[in-house]
Structures are given as structure tokens and as C-alpha cells.
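PROTEIN DATA CARD
Card holder: G-protein coupled receptors family 1 profile domain-containing protein
Chain length: 422
Origin: Mesorhabditis belari
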Amino acid sequence: MFRKQIEVQNTEITWEHDWVTVVQMKARRRRLDLMENWSLIASSSSTDPFAKCEEDLRNSDLKYYECVPKIENGDEPCYLLKEMHRAKDFRTYFLAILPVIFSVIALVLNIIYLVLHVIVFRAEKASYRKRALFLLSRSVSSVMALLLLYVVIIVWKAHGFHYGSVTIFILIGAMEFLSITGTYVALCLLLYTAITRPIIYKTRLRMRHCVIGVSLIWLFAVVASICFGLFGGTLFYPDSAPITCSFDHCQRPLAIVVTILLIITYSTVLCLYFFLIFRLRRGSMAFKAVERTASTSSQRLSLKAMNRLSMNVITFAIGNVPIVVVLVVAISNLRKLSSLGEGDKTPCKTFLNAKLFVQVEVLASCAAAIWLLAMIIDPIINVLSDPKLRNLLLTFVKKLRRKLMESEEETNEEGTNKEEEK
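Structure generated from the sequence above:
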């Protein structure tokens, strides 16, 4: 009976050719093809499960007809279809196109900032170099994270998400987060020492101490991020992971410990900075007194640097809030998220878990977008707030403009000379 209905509708399409547009005919033909295949899958039923969402059907949705009988929680097939399309759209635009655009802008700005900082670093005295070394370390961390992000995107587009790509993604985020966190903690302590103990800062604190501090920060960040990546990948792809990690005895405790550690390190930067500012304002050496009675120019410069650091700390706080939120949400849905990586990836698995995929795509998209925006804003703040970097950039811009004007004048002169010769 179902096939007869299809044949009748096919006949109607032929006779109604005069008043049905080509677009409508194509849509109806696609609809009938899907219905015919559905009749082969569920011959006992005469109801099309996607009849209420005909306009949402795509050419690639044919494979989801066989998944409809597997729905167990009472969800409507049309609802799952729409949710799955939402997840795919988020993945296409907000996890591929938008991050690439933001990352290109962030990479260019961070490279410009890194070059400017290297030039100023080589020309300045030791007192400036001590804190500049930590800023250089932060810039290198940002550039490395952005370059590794391209590796993840290439691997994802070539082979899809699997244990290896997820491991690299977690490694990038953890390394960038931990290295920048350590850098801000060191900068807070360094600038506080320069303001309150200028003699110790000049005489006892050497450049090699700062190099050792940066090296320790990177060593801790690399080792910790490798551990986070290797074990964190098992949370999403336990079957393909080379490390055996059961849910109750490994995955859940690991996720809780990692979340607590990252929240502690995130809070440490904010609490330490505001605690030191509070000490400067309310402590034995009042903040205004320091500004009024500072005996050396380096002490006043350190005080200004401490004030400028507040903008970086605020950017750090805003940029990493989504990471903390994603971790908390992931902990609450850990069992479901872990089930997505179990077994083979099939169309029915994607279709039946469409709601969960939407949550994952939205959280990952928001976290990536805000994280990259913070990496765009951070070098801009650093250049605009540092007079040395700002003046150097303006000098380069003026020289570049002058060269462009000179080349344009030379081109115009050559054109004029050729016309005169003719």
C-alpha cells in the first residue's frame, strides 16, 4: 500500500509539471526517495517518521531512517534531527571557520608583540629585562598554542576527532593555561618585590634567577599538560586510548582532580594579585606613599607596571572563565560524555545522542571563541599600555608609511617620464 501511494504521487508529479516549479519538484522527489527507502526499512509501518519536518530533511539524512526504531527515551525523530543539524552547524561555523579567523588575527598580533618586545628587551637595562623575560615567555606560549591549534584543526578535518586529536587539544589548552598562570604569579611577586624591596630587587635578584623561574614554569606546564592530555583523552575515547582507564576508578577521580587543580591555579592568580594590591594600599607602605616618595625611577616604573598588569589579569580572568565552566559542566555530564567515545562512531549513535552533541558543540564553541578573543585583546593591551612598545610601533608605522609614499612617488615619476618620452 505504501509503494502504491508513492507511485500515485509520482504520477501526480508528472501531470502537475505545468504548475509545479522545478525547485518544488526536486524537493518532492527527494521526499519520495526518502519515503521509499523508509518503506524498505520499516515495511510494516505506513507512517513517515519525518513527515512533520520535511523542510529540515537534507540529502545526507537518508541514513537516519534506520535509527528511528532505536529511539528509547520517547524523543521525537524530528526533534533529534533538528538538534543534530544544530550540532553540525555549530561544528562547521563556530569550531572551524570562526576559530580559524580569530586564530589568524591572534597569531599576527602576538607575533608583532613578540618582535617588538624582543627589540626593546635587547635595548633596555637589566631592571626592565627581568619582568620583560616573563612577558616574552607568555608571548611564546600564546604563539605556540595558536600554531598547535592549526595542527588540531588539520588533523580533525583529515581524520575526524579521535583520541590523538583530543589529546593534542587538551595538551594545548593545559600548557597555555598553566604557563600563563605561572607567568602572572611570577610577575605579581616580581613587581611587588621591585616596589616594596627595591634594593633586594636590584642587588640580589639577578637575571639568571628569572631565567630559572621561567624554565621551572615551562617544565611544570609541559609535564602537567602531557599528563592531562594523555589521561584526559581517555574521558572521551576510552576504547581507543592506549591507557586503560575505567570510569569509576580512573576517569571520574581524574576529572575531579584536574578540575579542582585548574580552579585553584585560576583563583591563585586573581587572589594573589588583589592581595598584593591590598597590601600596597593598606600595608605598612601605603600605596600613595610609594607613589609620592619613591626614590628611584625604577620603583615608580614598577608601580606603573603593577597597575598595567591589572588589565592583563582581568583579560586572563575573562578569557579563562569558559574553560572553568566547561570543566564543571563536563564533570556533571561525565558519564554521558564518556559514552560518546565508547564503541564505533555510527550515524545512529550521532542521531540518538543529538542533544548531548549540541551541548558539547555549544560549550566548545563558546570556550574557543572567548579564549581566542582574550589572546587577541592581550597583546593590544600590552602594546598600548607600555610606552616603549607603543613608541616603537609608531616608529615602524611611520617608516612604513614613508616608504610606501616614496615608492608611490617613484612609480608616478616613472609613469610621467614614460609619457614625456612618448
